[in-house]
Amino acid sequence: MCKSKIENRKSKIARLVILGAGESGVGTALLGKKKGFEVFVSDFGQLKETYKQVLEHHEIEWEEGGHTEEKILSATVVMKSPGIPDTVPIVKKLKNEGIKVISEIEFASKFTDATIVGITGSNGKTTTATLTYEVLKNGGLNVALGGNIGKSFAEQVSEETFTNYVLELSSFQLDGIETFAPHIAVLTNITPDHLNRYDHDFSKYIAAKFRIAMNQTADDYFIYDADDEVITEWLSEHPLQSRLLPFSAKKELKQGAYIKNNEIILTIDNNKFTMAIKTIGLQGEHNTKNAMAASTVAKLLKIRKATIRESMERFQGVEHRLEKVLKINNVMYINDSKATNVNATFYALDSMESPTVWIVGGVDKGNDYTDLLPLVNEKVKAIVCLGVDNEKLTKQFGNIVDMLVETQSMQEAVKIAYRLAERGDNVLLSPACASFDLFTNYEDRGRQFKEAVRQL
């Protein structure tokens, strides 16, 4: 068993307090209990019934509907769920008291010796992480998928002994790391996102993403998009310790992956791998880049070339990312609920080849919609706004499309889109916003969309 640095700080039983009883919070509670911590879970909101049952079953103390300061401030260490900002009063008090506040990723990493592949980026990280996991699994590795996707990293560390992890990592999760260092880090791209969380300062968000590599050494690898000017500029000013393996759709590279004659060419040292782009299951330049990143990870971990090619050919994508739901009256309904920022929606609109009724809106994270204007002008015939506050969207797009309708429920949005769409059109849910005004999360939003479409 890996001994935690946290555990060794005090000879008496260390007290682990967890703020937020969602997937990461409950997973951390299970791991903490197994490793001998005295565990207390506190949630300002209400716990899901399933999570209550898990905590009760494992005899873990919890509270909901508020924080008992005395119990929280007695902590040796606090795991803060990624959705909780540093600005909330209880987190400020903890930091003033000098109590360590970390993320689930930091905590769980102390209890595994597995090889970790960490994947972050504003867009494409879920697809890249899932694709990477599939390739490694198909290649016979003992591997788990976690982080910002599926079952929490902490719970998986507590339950099984995996020798490899593929972790999708958000900037919020990376904000709470201190010593966490993936052997292979992937940065898919950086575009403005979550700026409301970063004081509307893009450089703070960029720095948060680059935390994925801050503890890497010369024995580790950093895979990144060499076409992304934000990334390349940051790297030129902040050199990394790790070995750089770029990928590019625009230029030839001596090391890393690039495109030539409609083929991906990947070179690591003197080892070359090629794959025809037309054979990849997911088409589009952004998906080709996701495939380049995943293939680079697979080659580093010694997966056979034939396995990589077969995995890329078979992979059909992830739920809520340009997911074709149904065709009704020759209108295709597409679920892109995972598009929670402008750049993701840019990809979605760019891929539309028919007139599109676009369902957009939610919690605006400091979005600038300017880049979407040409695409909306070219491809969008009508806009259905779906959110509590649609003012910014109506101002931006009201004069560009012939029809803009405001709605506040998914069922209403889909019914209106159904009436506006004609044979040969698309109806695209690609919100460019967070979901928390009307939905639990983007998955809830996507599933409500699919259910509403099926009920037409």
Brief characterization of the structure:
The chain has 456 residues and is an alpha/beta fold. The protein contains 17 helices and 20 strands. The longest helix has 16 residues, at 285-300.
Quaternary organisation of the protein chains: single chain
Distance N terminus to C terminus?
A: 54 Å
Give the overall shape, derived from the CA principal axes. Answer: globular
CATH architecture level-2 label of the largest domain: 3-Layer(aba) Sandwich
Per CATH, what is the topology of the largest domain? UDP-N-acetylmuramoyl-L-alanine:D-glutamate ligase
Q: What is Rg? A: 23 Å
Uncertain stretches of 5 or more adjacent residues: 1-11
The name of the CATH superfamily of the largest domain reads Mur-like, catalytic domain
Number of helices: 17
Main structural class: alpha/beta
CATH structural class of the largest domain: Alpha Beta
The main sheet orders its strands as: 7-8-6-9-10-11-12-13-14
In total, how many beta strands? 20
Please report which band the strand proportion falls in: under 5%, 5-15%, 15-25%, 25-35%, 35-45% or over 45%: 15-25%
Keywords: ATP-binding, Cell cycle, Cell division, Cell shape, Cell wall biogenesis/degradation, Cytoplasm, Ligase, Nucleotide-binding, Peptidoglycan synthesis
Domain Mur ligase central: 119-298
Domain Mur ligase C-terminal: 320-433
EC number: 6.3.2.9
